[in-house]
Specification:
The complex is a heterodimer.
Chain A (H helix, E strand, L loop, with lengths): L14 H28 L2 E4 L2 E4 L3 H8 L1 H36 L7 H13 L2 H11 L6 H8 L16 H13 L1 H13 L2 H9 L4 H28 L4 H7 L12 H10 E2 L2 E2 L2 H30 L5
Antiparallel strand pairs in A: 1-2, 3-4
Helix pairs in contact in A: 1-13, 2-3, 3-7, 3-8, 3-10, 4-8, 5-7, 5-11, 8-10, 9-10, 10-13, 12-13
Chain B lengths: L1 H4 L9 H29 L4 H6 L13 H9 L2 H32 L5 H13 L6 H10 L6 H25 L3 H9 L4 H12 L1 H17 L2 H6 L8 H11 L4 H31 L5
Helix pairs in contact in B: 2-14, 4-14, 5-8, 5-11, 5-13, 6-8, 8-11, 9-10, 11-14, 13-14
The chains are: A mainly alpha, B mainly alpha.
Chain lengths: ~300, ~290
């Protein structure tokens, strides 16, 4: 090294960079990035008894059009959109309502409410699934007795067991568990709204509903958009709840099948159908594309449109 | 009551009813959120007949029993499952924090070729679930001979937790004044020492937030234990409960007790750390 040239001092190989970045990057690339890319590639191959051959998009064509596959695929995809729609229509409005109530100025016990309402979100989806399975069980009859006590007894049914209601019931269980997340995130945004803006609208004679609608709602739209994309990714990746309550077969008659359970069955096989790694990879690739499209839509469309409301 | 009625200061006559409504709605929802969990926990301590006769009653001297817990501990290795979960979670979270802080520091402090690409690569991982690579992760673990080991779970969970950790910690590193590191460099302190003695202690609050966010999905995960480590010896608590309940579904005492054993430790930890978690959620951690 030439000691007179101080600017060149950093030239030697940056070992500190390797030290700081190396281990984390290595684990992340080997166990997350590489498997994902490998899965995308594998979806273009056909794998039978250890023999792999390149077949282009044939797996996808099979999934979408072949009689034995397409029915299950479209069923799972459709169910997944229903599952997502129920979350958007029920979870986020309830979360918004609770957040608005929690952020009422000078509300006593707001910390306690917040902590308690968030509690189910902390528990494993598997546990929550079992808990609700017991509560809704006609054998135990807790829900039935409760409905009778408020005069709605005739509406009770074995909701989880019926094709027409099982998926909706599971979606509501999931909503019940995760309503804490939109509540917390929206609540945090509401707390960060400067008081002057709200005060100004009150001085201008706005009532509390007008203040909410014209001042606060536009400011929490970015948070609602973020909650929506988080919900989207989580829903199109959901597996545990269905697997715990209904098993990998997502009964009755696949009426609760989501992409996650469909992926699991395709990869590992079930009953008479053999599992297939390449077919599983194809399903995972489609899930990847769906999630990617959702994220892109969020980044390029929604994010841009609501940016003008941000400070 | 006085404080209650001052809830909404500027709306005169409607003060009291309004605050009462707010409390009524929040209280009602709190009951909805807690009721299912409470019902399961109280019935775990009751005799089978009492579970069905009076599901909402508290256990009394007649109906109190621990037979369900005895059955669970007898028929399955709950201690081992909890231990496995604990080992996996602590190792994975600890390494996510350390490696995440190091990577976040390198990516925000040093300018080098590929910095942007690597930052983008990590950012992708926040949104794209690692589960989608399961097919290849499994074959990778098979070829590394790591199937049915806790190591496999730890490695996957580190990869799963790093993206968010790097993102949050990078945001935090940016808020550390440059003068601090520049001054240390002028005193020719090594880069390693700057990180471990100056930066790492400053990152502690952010790391606590990251720890909570990373811990919950790992502890609760069913997918990877089911696929990578389903063996009896490596079963985690979530998988253990899932298998146990599936097997003894008709034995109500056992099922309720198994669920209670899974719920109660988490709730105790949650009550201890809820402040930390909520501060993390409501501060700048999620932007």
């Amino acid at each position: 090294m030439n000691p007179s040239n101080q600017h060149d001092e950093k030239k030697p190989f940056p070992w500190h960079l390797v030290f700081f970045l190396g281990p984390g990057l290595l684990i992340y690339v080997v166990f997350s990035v590489y498997p994902l890319l490998d899965t995308l590639v594998l979806s273009l191959y056909n794998e039978q008894q250890g023999q792999t051959s390149f077949i282009g998009l044939q797996n996808f064509i099979t999934l979408v059009t072949d009689d034995t596959w397409s029915q299950a695929f479209w069923n799972a995809l459709g169910n997944n959109f229903k599952f997502f729609a129920i979350h958007m229509l029920v979870q986020n409005p309830i979360g918004l309502l609770l957040a608005v109530l929690l952020s009422s100025p000078k509300l006593r016990l707001s910390g306690t409410y917040r902590t308690l309402i968030f509690m189910p979100t902390m528990l494993s989806v598997v546990i929550i699934g079992f808990v609700w399975q017991l509560l809704l069980s006609p054998i135990w009859g807790i829900s039935e007795n409760f409905l009778y006590s408020i005069g709605l007894g005739q509406y009770f049914d074995a909701w989880l067991g019926k094709e027409s209601s099982a998926l909706i019931t599971l979606a509501f269980i999931s909503v019940w568990q995760f309503v804490g997340i939109p509540m917390m995130l929206i609540y945090a945004t509401l707390l960060n709204i400067p008081d002057d803006i709200v005060d100004a609208s009150v001085v201008d004679g706005a009532n509390s509903f007008q203040t909410f609608w014209h001042i606060k709602l536009p400011l929490i739209l970015p948070t609602i958009a973020m909650v929506s994309i988080l919900t989207f990714v989580a829903n199109f990746n959901a597996f545990e709840l269905i697997y715990a309550v209904k098993g990998a077969l997502a009964g009755p008659d696949f009426s609760t099948d989501l992409m996650g359970t469909f992926f699991y069955r395709t990869f590992f096989g079930f009953q008479l159908q053999q599992g297939s790694a390449s077919m599983g990879a194809a399903v995972a690739t489609l899930m990847f594309l769906i999630i990617l499209m959702g994220v892109m839509l969020f980044l390029f469309f929604i994010q841009r449109r609501i940016q003008r409301f941000q400070f | 009551m006085k404080l209650l009625s001052r809830l909404i200061p500027s709306s005169g006559m409607r003060q009291v009813p309004k605050s009462v409504t707010v409390h009524a709605v929040l209280l009602a929802y709190t009951v909805i959120a807690l009721f299912p969990i409470i019902v399961v926990v109280i019935n775990a301590f009751k005799e089978r007949r009492a579970i069905f006769r009076d599901p909402l009653g508290l256990p009394d001297s007649d109906s109190f029993t621990l037979v369900g817990f005895q059955q669970v501990l007898l028929r399955s290795d709950f201690g081992l499952y909890s231990w496995n979960s604990l080992v996996v979670t602590i190792l994975a979270v600890g390494l996510v924090l350390l490696l995440g802080a190091m990577a976040a520091w390198a990516l925000t402090e040093y300018k080098f070729k590929g910095n942007l690409l690597i930052t983008f690569l990590f950012a992708m991982g926040i949104m794209i679930p690692i589960r989608l690579g399961t097919v290849s992760i499994l074959s990778l673990m098979v070829s590394l001979d790591l199937v049915n080991t806790l190591t496999a779970l730890v490695l996957v969970y580190i990869a799963q937790g790093l993206p968010l950790a790097v993102y949050i910690l990078s945001e935090f590193v940016r808020t550390i004044p440059k003068e601090l590191t520049e001054a240390a460099r002028c005193d020719s302190v090594s880069e390693y020492k700057i990180f471990f003695c100056v930066i790492l202690p400053l990152l502690k609050p952010a790391m606590a937030t990251v720890a909570v966010f990373t811990m919950i999905p790992i502890w609760n995960d069913l997918w990877f234990p089911l696929i990578l480590a389903p063996g009896e010896e490596t079963r985690t608590i979530t998988l253990g409960v899932q298998q146990f309940v599936g097997q003894y579904v008709t034995d109500w005492n056992s099922v309720l007790s198994a669920l209670t054993l899974a719920i109660v430790p988490v709730l105790i930890l949650y009550t201890i750390f809820s402040r930390q978690l909520i501060r993390g959620l409501t501060s700048g951690a999620v932007k």
